[in-house]
Amino acid sequence: MLEPTAATALDEIPAETAETAESTESAVHWGAIIAGGVASAALTLILLAFGAGVGFSAVSPWSAGSASTSFHLAAGLYFIVTAMLASSVGGYLAGRLRTRWTGAQSREIFFRDTAHGFLAWGFATLLSAAVLSAASANLVGGVSATTLEAGGESAYVMDRYVDELVRPQPGTGTVGAESMAERGIVRRIFAAGIHNKGEFAPADRLYLVQIVRDRQTLGATQAQALVDAALADAQQTVIQMQKAAAQLALWLTASLFIGAFSASLAAIEGGALRDGTWHYNV
Questions:
Q1: Cβ(36)–Cβ(44) under 8 Å?
Q2: Where do the H-state alpha helices sit in the chain?
């Protein structure tokens, strides 16, 4: 058998180049990416709504009737399931709706489909964060220590501590202006302490002891014990909230990674079905 000559090898180069020549159009089909991202974001919102309806809220701020915050394992697992389903649908649509790449090799098509799925996941993530954040937050029911201020969902927390220390005496009728002013001061002290990760200034502690001693006609020792118990309860609440927030962040991170992988893998299948090559090993 004759060995191929140099001239024969040179003659084969143009043929190989012609077979691998790619089109001049962009390899990124943004229409398919946006469509997949929108579908993924919408499905995420639907699944979050379903999860909230069946009791898979991410954070339960009033667990067992107390002002504690806890994270449930079932909610973290549901986050991952939601990410897998929504991202897979979005990635599949991104791969299936893109146009055919003429002249691209199978490995290059494999990479492009993977990138399209990843971009669709990224677009859905940004869309959810920018547009659906308020709706998602309400459905998930998330609470963080940095947003626990005097107002909104934290009103119950503040009023609970205020009532422990400065509650009106039975049979006194309506609360006077002086009592309302004291309640407002105590409420702001607790709001500032919880916002400061459970750290209360010594001057605030002393002021609370004086108010409790005067309003409830207690001795200095009893008033100090009552204030210390209320502040310890508030600090424990902050610790529980921080733990729940950390667990929530870890589960969200895991769900994001799994969502990105699921979208990329589904885009490969969608693209291969689009080109009719799904039965081939690419």
A1: no
A2: 6-19, 30-53, 73-97, 106-130, 133-140, 155-165, 177-195, 202-215, 220-275
What the block records as the tokens of 112 is 């492009």
278 and 102 Cβ atoms separated by less than 8 Å: no
Partners of 70 in the beta sheet? 60
CA separation for the pair 236, 61 (Å, rounded): 13
Tokens 């180069």, located at residue? 13
Q: 276: helix, coil or strand?
A: coil
Other Cβ atoms closer than 10 A to 198: 18
55 burial type by CB count under 10 A (0-12 exposed, 13-18 middle, 19+ buried): exposed
Rg of the chain over Cα atoms, rounded to whole angstroms, equals 30
**Cβ pair 58, 140 in contact under 8 A:** yes
Q: Decide: pTM greater than 0.70.
A: no
CA distance 35 to 176: 60
Cα–Cα distances in angstroms (integers) from residue 41 to residues 10, 159, 220, 272, in the given order:
52, 38, 58, 24
Q: Tell me the HSE value of 114 on the side-chain side, using a 13 A CA sphere.
A: 8
Helix (H, G, I), strand (E, B) or coil at 152: helix
Give the alpha-carbon dihedral of 211, 216, 222, 223, to 10 degrees.
Answer: -10
* pLDDT tens sequence across 39-57: 999 998 888 888 877 777 6
60-112 pLDDT tens trace = 433 433 333 456 777 788 889 999 999 999 999 999 999 888 878 889 989 99
Residues for the chain: how many in total? 282
Q: What is the 8-class DSSP label of residue 217?
A: T
CA distance 141 to 71: 11
